[in-house]
Amino acid sequence: MSHTKLVNNMKNIIITGGAGFIGSHVVRLFVNKYPEYNIINLDKLTYAGNLANLKDIEDKENYTFVKGDICDFEMVLELMKKHKVDGIIHLAAESHVDRSIKDPFTFARTNVMGTLSLLQAAKIYWESLPEKYEGKRFYHISTDEVYGALELTNPEGIESPFTTKASSAHHHAYGTEFFLETTKYNPHSPYSAAKASSDHFVRAFHDTYGMPTIVTNCSNNYGPYQFPEKLIPLFINNIRHRKPLPVYGEGLNVRDWLYVEDHARAIDLIFHKGKVADTYNIGGFNEWKNIDIIHVLINTVDRLLGRKEGEDLNLITHVTDRMGHDMRYAIDSRKLQKELGWEPSLQFEEGIEKTVRWYLDNQEWMDNVTSGDYQNYYESMYKNR
Ligand code: NAD
Ligand code: TYD
């Protein structure tokens, strides 16, 4: 079918959730790398959206910010018509598991209904064009959490059978199973249930209407501009200010960490070269027990602040475990490496050092977020435009 042709002349692209953590890295990469593309960042600016994340590119000719809710179907359809949009890279979502446990409705609304609203707007607009779906792309960014949780069969860690440039020097795997693209969906949290549902809708739009969709499922990201409710930025900030570090349960849960810019590079590659209707898992074979990563954070912050290394280990405070806390995530990304030649660029030890340095050097960014001041940035920047 013609619509399975690779995209090579994509010009007008909506990136949703571009003011968030991963989205801001994707917007920056596309705006800088593709001056011939028009990049439209559609973001509602919820508590997680921060335009200060994009200060360095906000005046570029090929960048437009639109404040809007992806659930607003009419607005999305008008936006697609106005900008003659031929590609959507969809990152907007409610993304924090703990919030989803408290308020699942918001997650169903944005992650499920919001995705459906984008899909339906894209369908109506693209089907109205003479070329229909030719040269179009709907790329949905998802998570490994839709696959559920893996068992911790090797709590002390074994030599990982696979590595990438991103793998930590310790090369540990904490079990023998990994999430493959074919792994059955088995989400546990309201967050992952909503993401799973949105993934199904995206695939249904390909299977039913022939929309050229792609879905990718990535492991935990770390790096600059992450909202400090997630483990790594929260703990770096708390260590700096010598506040308690709330470790859920024993801290034995395992996450597979990838530097955010390596995720953004994968998204660029897959958006342009990925096979329509396909799924790619993204991850660097880099598993860490929470408690071990927390030790690395304490040692690194202390060293960089000229404190005695490990001086702040006493901040570790074990608190009640998260409800339904998934034990282990571990992505098998060999398909992406083999088929599209993706390789992460940054080894974990380098990446975490760079990340800690960034948060310590950008205390103003952190203060604006923790004080809530970042929410006035839109008013001051865009009110006269
Ligand atoms: P984030 O919470 O930092 O950012 C989400 C962005 O979406 C914010 O800018 C927010 O304002 C915007 N948004 C929320 N609701 C919206 C709505 N209704 N309309 C328009 N915009 C809205 O999230 P993130 O960590 O950058 O994650 C981005 C995407 O990547 C999500 O889809 C998430 O599921 C996925 N993902 C995240 C990770 C991770 O480790 N953070 C890993 C794999 C996949
Ligand atoms: P998080 O950054 O919320 O990502 P996710 O739940 O999507 O993997 O949490 C990473 C891990 O850290 C997870 O196992 C929960 C744990 N955690 C804590 O122990 N304490 C905390 O304060 C937070 C936010 C997370």
TrEMBL record:
<dbReference type="GO" id="GO:0008460">
    <property type="term" value="F:dTDP-glucose 4,6-dehydratase activity"/>
</dbReference>
<dbReference type="InterPro" id="IPR036291">
    <property type="entry name" value="NAD(P)-bd_dom_sf"/>
</dbReference>
<dbReference type="Pfam" id="PF16363">
    <property type="entry name" value="GDP_Man_Dehyd"/>
</dbReference>
<dbReference type="GO" id="GO:0009225">
    <property type="term" value="P:nucleotide-sugar metabolic process"/>
</dbReference>
<feature type="domain" description="NAD(P)-binding">
    <location>
        <begin position="14"/>
        <end position="355"/>
    </location>
</feature>
<dbReference type="InterPro" id="IPR005888">
    <property type="entry name" value="dTDP_Gluc_deHydtase"/>
</dbReference>
<dbReference type="InterPro" id="IPR016040">
    <property type="entry name" value="NAD(P)-bd_dom"/>
</dbReference>
<keyword id="KW-0456">Lyase</keyword>
<keyword id="KW-0520">NAD</keyword>
<protein>
    <recommendedName>
        <fullName>dTDP-glucose 4,6-dehydratase</fullName>
        <ecNumber>4.2.1.46</ecNumber>
    </recommendedName>
</protein>
<comment type="similarity">
    <text>Belongs to the NAD(P)-dependent epimerase/dehydratase family. dTDP-glucose dehydratase subfamily.</text>
</comment>
